[in-house]
Design a protein that fits this description.
This protein has about 200 residues and is an alpha+beta fold. The chain is built from five helices and eight strands; from the N terminus they run ββαααβββαβαββ.
Length: about 200
């Protein structure tokens, strides 16, 4: 189950895989957004995001992924954070006419059952950025992490110059825990990253 990343400026990204819980919220323009399990029909969404080379510097990915590989990934993912060490949802919006459109992925990965923490990842297709979808999806994954998974902490590693991603997480009550010098390497240069943390409490 190899996947992407951390928060990225151009498409507010992070990444990695989840289950049968479905959460729906209303967004602007009379659209409904839901977070749902990955289906075989989501192959092209995964293919588009995973093979966007502009995002690879935020992850350990160094080569394209084939549709065959991603089809196997979808089929083999057990949607159990305790087995997989990660969970992935598709972010889907439905228009007023009832047409559903998958627009991104939101993940919890690097899960530690001992310490009850997981890293947060999200990837939104470029044409849907700036519409508040990422903010809504993060709010829903926070509630899932708190109420269903009983996690103590969510964290994200964000490039220090990614002001949009940092602002989005701060609005979700994440706090900066540390600056990680030379954490990311891109375009022949090292870049600092911020460790963003959210400590969850039952409500």
């Amino acid at each position: 189950c190899s996947v992407l990343l951390s928060l990225h400026e151009s498409s507010l990204c992070i990444s990695r895989c989840y289950s049968c819980h479905i959460i729906s919220v209303h967004t602007a323009n009379n659209r409904t957004m839901r977070i749902r399990a990955i289906e075989p029909e989501d192959l092209e969404l995964l293919y588009t995001i995973e093979n966007d080379t502009s995002l690879w510097w935020l992850s350990s990915q160094t080569a394209p992924l084939s549709r065959y590989h991603l089809r196997q990934y979808i089929a083999s993912c057990e949607a159990d954070i305790y087995k997989d060490g990660q969970v992935r949802y598709v972010i889907e919006i439905t228009s007023a006419s009832g047409q559903p459109t998958p627009v991104g992925l939101i993940d919890l990965f690097n899960f530690s059952p001992q310490h009850r923490r997981a890293e947060l990842g999200i990837a939104i297709l470029r044409e849907y950025c700036g519409k508040g979808i990422a903010q809504q999806a993060v709010a829903e994954i926070i509630e899932l992490s708190r109420q269903v998974l009983s996690l103590h902490q969510l964290y994200a590693i964000v490039p220090e110059d990614n002001s949009a991603a940092l602002s989005m997480l701060q609005k979700a009550q994440f706090k900066q825990g540390a600056v990680l010098p030379d954490w990311l390497f891109y375009a022949s240069e090292y870049h600092n990253a911020c460790l963003m943390q959210l400590f969850l409490q039952k409500t």
